[in-house]
Structures are given as structure tokens and as C-alpha cells.
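Lecture 7, part 2: worked example. A protein chain together with acetyl coenzyme *A.
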Amino acid sequence: MGTQRITIFDTTLRDGEQSPGCSMNLDEKLQMARQLEVLGVDVIEAGFPVASDDDFAAVQAIARECRKPVIAALCRAIPRDIDRAWEALREAERPRIHTFLATSDIHLAYKLQKTREEALEMIREGVGRAKSYCDDVEFSAEDATRSDWDFLVEVFTVAIEAGATVLNVPDTVGYTVPDEYAKLITHLRERVPGIDGVTISVHCHNDLGLAVANSLAAVSAGARQVECTVNGIGERAGNAALEEVVMALSVRRDVMPFATGVNQEAIYRTSQTLANITGIEVQPNKAIVGRNAFAHESGIHQHGMLSHRSTYEIMTPESVGVRRTHLVLGKHSGRHALAKRFEELGYPLDRAELDKAYKLFTKLSDQKKEIFDEDLLAIVRDGLTHIPETFKLRALQATAGTSMFATGLVTLATDEGDATETAMGDGPVNAVFAAVDKLTGLKGRLLDFRIHAITGGADAVGEVFVQVEFDGVAHGGKGASTDIVEASVRAYLNATNKVLFARRAALAPLEIQARP
Ligand SMILES: CC(=O)SCCNC(=O)CCNC(=O)[C@H](O)C(C)(C)COP(=O)(O)OP(=O)(O)OC[C@H]1O[C@@H](n2cnc3c(N)ncnc32)[C@H](O)[C@@H]1OP(=O)(O)O
Ligand SMILES: CC(C)C(=O)C(=O)O
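Predicted complex, written out as C-alpha cells:
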């Protein structure tokens, strides 16, 4: 069996717009429709014209402008709605009237208060009226998956007799499961006379997170149109996500021999266009278009990715228009990814340097959720020096307030073990510097103190630069930490350790050199 074509029916502008907070005005709908045309969807359901004058105008404008795809408009199975839908669509190159009526006993009894016979009559009349305007008529049996299967056979038989060209079998409340849905499609294909001459469509909601799985199961059972929305927006938990349906069919063509006409490289941009228009961001772990869809954080995965991307990616980010794979450096990363990033930043590290950098990196990643390039540069600048840490910060405590002296308590590790001192000062930094002086026996005079945040966010790393004079000689020191008092002490100690190193080695003050 060759590859068969699946019609992608996009309902972002209709069912998608029913997503709370996703209403779009005429300009926004037009902008989105243009992007959907670029994406290459087969059908754009542009709106529900009877709902409002704005929706009518949007459907009309899209029908006038987007000439390539079929433009569909939704309407209830009543004359007023059908007439209004046609009025909005009449200038479309390829118009489709999409009319619907609920067919489940629950909806018939409680919502429509109609008998099955009355429903069949409304379907006959509604589809017939739509057909009098337009060749292309879709009929949806709302709540089909909770409808009696034999009654559905009657419903679709009537719809075909009245002229429907597309029969939609919606899982309106996201209730079905793949196996059952496939069986329903098969049941209809076996029982509805003339069904081979029309297109079977599916429209799945995501209440149980099964919208895409159900859509694919239905396709395997014979459905040839999938109704879906960009980013999966839609009533309640949303609709089947267009990008997931399209990419599942593309990536797994080996088991599902179906093709779509979607220009896959436009997927990401389309997703972003919608997010920008609605202001509703895509969840980070959303398949295909989420920020993390092509991000790898853990060391084992990153090592695999660096060896060959096929180890952990089933499609390339470029294939859906995402610029690149992202190796996120964080708590779970390993040496391979770290070395690679240092190399990209212009700091190729040898094994010993890498081990040291990795130690600093893991320490920092216990404090920060994500490590940015600036953090790595701080590690190189602050950590990869060859200055022996004669005095090493063990612990630190500082208190300060508006009506009290600041006090600092510092514990340093030395060759002879840990030692602790306290001191007071004008502020917490001044107090901890004084405590350090007591511990080292050196008296430093602060010449310069600069601090800046080198990463963004509330947990930013602050980098402190100090110039400290010891016995008439100035030494620079740098320190970085998410805690600015700690960064200050580290910078001060860095300068102090340089003094001791310089004195012992009888060397001039050292500066850390980054590799070119
Ligand atoms: C599953 C889906 O997504 S269906 C599409 C949902 N989309 C929308 O509802 C679009 C936005 N809706 C609207 O603007 C309004 O609801 C309108 C203009 C459609 C109707 O507004 P109102 O006339 O005030 O009716 P309301 O929405 O309160 O109730 C729906 C009415 O439509 C009837 N109805 C519902 N579905 C259908 C149908 N497919 N065919 C015929 N009548 C229907 C209901 O029985 C009810 O009728 P009643 O007023 O005689 O009791
Ligand atoms: C009108 C139909 C297609 C619908 O939106 C649904 O059943 O969810």
C-alpha cells in the first residue's frame, strides 16, 4: 500500500479560539490565517459567523484573502446559522460549510431536548440547506463517541443522503481511547452506505491527554481528515495538537504510511505566532514546539548527543523550524557537555582543568537551576587559577540592620585546621573582611570594590572585584557566588592568597589569564 494523503483541518481560529483567554480580533485572526496558509494546512476553519459581527467579519476577510486552503465556517444545524455561514464564505475560492448537531442521548435529552427522529430531520434539513449553497459540506455528529453506534450509522447515512462530503466523528469531550475509537471508525465504514465516497474526519479533545493518540488510531482505521489546532489550544483541555499529529505521521511513516501537505519547517514559527497573538506561552515540555523539546540536560544524554544526535533525538529541531538543539548545563550535566561548552566559549580545558571546573560547576549547579555561559566564564576567571588556596572559606555568617552594627563570623580552613573569628564593621562586607584579617594576620586596605550580577534571574551569580593593599602592594581579587557577601569574601580571600603566594614565591602579583 502506498502513502496516503491526510487532510489537515486546522481549527485554531474556531475551536482553538474557544480556549479561555485565546480570543482573537479580526487583525489577529487574519495574521494567524496567513501563517496557517504558509504552514500549508488544507483547511482553515475560520470561525463561527453567527456568533458575532466580528467573527463574521473575520471569516469573510480570511475567505477573501486566503485563496489556497479550503475555508470552513461552523454553524449549528439551523437555517439562520447556515445562511450566515454562507454569507461569510461566499467569496472564498474553496468554501466549506461545516454544520453540526449533537447525537448522543445525553446531549439530545438534556441540551437539545430533541428525540432521535427530530435530530435526524434537523440533520437532513441542515445539510440539505448547506448543500444548496455550497458543494463542500461537512457534517459533525457532536459527542459522537458517546452516541449509540447504530444511531450514528443512521445519522451519517442521512447526512450523506442530504449531500455531506465530509463526515466528522468528534470525540467532543475527550472520552474515547485509541482502540475504541478505531473500532468506531471501522464500524461506520462497514455500515454506512456510501461512506467510501466521502471523507471521514476526526476531531479529538484532550481531556484524558489522548487527543493525538486517538486521532492517529482513527487514521489507521480509515479516517482521512484530522481536525487539530496549533499548540493544541481549544475548549477545556484543548484539541489534538497539529504539530504533534503532523510530526507523528512524518516520523513514524514506517508504521503509518500517511503524508500531509504541511510545510514542517514552518511549524515552530506558527506556534510562536499564535503564542505572541494570544499571549499564552507554550508550556516548556510541550512536544515539538516547547522550549525543552530539543533541550538535553543530563550528562548521559548530552554525552550521547555529542557522540551522535540520533541517540536522543527522533527528529531534528531544524525539521520543525527550531534553530538548534540546546544542551542545557545544569545539575545533571557531565564533563563531556561542560568541556564542549568551554571549548565553544574559547576555553579548551585539559583534563585536570576540566576536573576542577567540573567540581566548581557541580557546586554552583546545586545552588542554581541553570548554568549560563556567564557562570562558566566566572568559573574560569575565579576558579581555574593556580593560586594555592592557603586560606579557604569554610563558613560565613553576617548580620546587619538599620539600628545595629554589622557583625561577621568567618571560618577559614588552613593547613593547621579550621579557625573562626568574628568582627564588627560598618556593613556586613566590611565586618566579614575584618574577620578575615583577624584570621590571616594580614591587614588589608580596601582600595576598590566592584560588584555586578553576571547572570540573570533572582538566583543570579554576583561577581565581586576587589583591589586590596597589603604593605603598600595592591592585589586584585575576584569571587563569584549567588550570595554577594560570600562573593565578596571569596574575592578578598583571593587577593589575600595571592599576597601569600607572591611572598612565598617572591613573585609579582598574579592575574588570572583566560585562554584565548
Ligand atoms: C462542541 C463545540 O465546540 S460547538 C461550538 C461552540 N461554539 C460556540 O458556541 C460559538 C459561540 N457561541 C455563541 O456565540 C452563542 O452560543 C450562539 C450565538 C451560537 C447562540 O447563542 P444563544 O442563541 O444565546 O444560545 P445559547 O448559546 O445560550 O444556547 C445554545 C442554543 O443552541 C442550541 N443548539 C446547540 N447546538 C445546536 C446545533 N448543533 N444545532 C441547532 N441548535 C443547537 C441549543 O439547544 C440552544 O438552543 P435554545 O436557545 O433554543 O435553548
Ligand atoms: C463542532 C464539533 C466539530 C466540535 O467542535 C466538537 O465536537 O468538539
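Residues 484-505 form the longest helix (22 residues). Residues 15, 100, 140, 142, 168, 170, 172, 203, 205 surround 3-methyl-2-oxobutanoic acid (ligand 2) (CB under 6 Å). Keep this in mind for problem set question 3.
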